[in-house]
Amino acid sequence: MTRKLIPPAHVMRATDNEALWTKIGIIKELSLMAKSVIIYGRGCFLKFLNVNTGEEMCLTLNDHNGNGDGLKCYRGHSSLYIFAYSECCQRPFIYVKSYPDFQLIVKFEGEREGFKCLAFSDSSLLFSLGEMPHYKVTAWNWRSMDKFAESANELLFENQIIRCSYGRPMYLAQLGVGSTKLFIWDVFTVCKSTIFDKHQVKIGNLKPAPFESVVWSVDGVALYIIDRNGSIYTVRL
């Protein structure tokens, strides 16, 4: 039985908007929303590719009083059609919106320095990592529209990422990319309060190459670390 290869143009259709011509170029990060929508972006454009339908949508971010002034960082929710992104300007806002209608759910006002990275929990918390010099870790509740907690940070690296685990208990991994510095935050939430408890991961006698990324297991009980040479290390909690 022969199978016919379908050209991409036949399986992907762009929404009818003024930015359907955009090409992102070098894609530095992908985020998956609700297990079916790939999010990527750069500059003033955030694009959404639905892997089930092949539909591609584009959100233009070129107005501080509208969708936002440029794109700094973004993240999709793991199980809901919800995504968040931060502007690339001074005193940026964090926008939380629904997909595919792009309706605004909440807008959080940030610090003057801006944000470096975002991470959703699998419930109603959104975590942000601030820019230099403080690199603050903040917990926001996008359902109640509250700022729950904020913590100072000892990891002073220009290139950092945060990743939230799935399920309970909740953990937040913070990695200094290009180093072997890794922190894991225990996250405790009671009513409208969130408590952070930070632990540094000790590498002992290991001599790994600099770490490049981290990813949580589906059950949230293990953290996998990828170094520059492609080796994978496991942290059991």
UniProtKB/TrEMBL annotation:
Family: Belongs to the CFAP43 family.
GO cellular component, one term: axoneme
Protein name: Cilia- and flagella-associated protein 43
PANTHER family xref list: CILIA- AND FLAGELLA-ASSOCIATED PROTEIN 43 (PTHR14885:SF1), CILIA- AND FLAGELLA-ASSOCIATED PROTEIN 43-RELATED (PTHR14885)
An individual GO BP term: cilium assembly
Keywords: Cell projection, Coiled coil, Cytoplasm, Cytoskeleton, Repeat, WD repeat
InterPro entries the UniProt entry points to: WD40/YVTN_repeat-like_dom_sf, WD40_repeat_dom_sf
Coiled coil (residue ranges): none
Broad class of where this protein is predominantly found: cytoplasm
Location relative to the cell: Cytoplasm, Cytoskeleton, Cilium axoneme
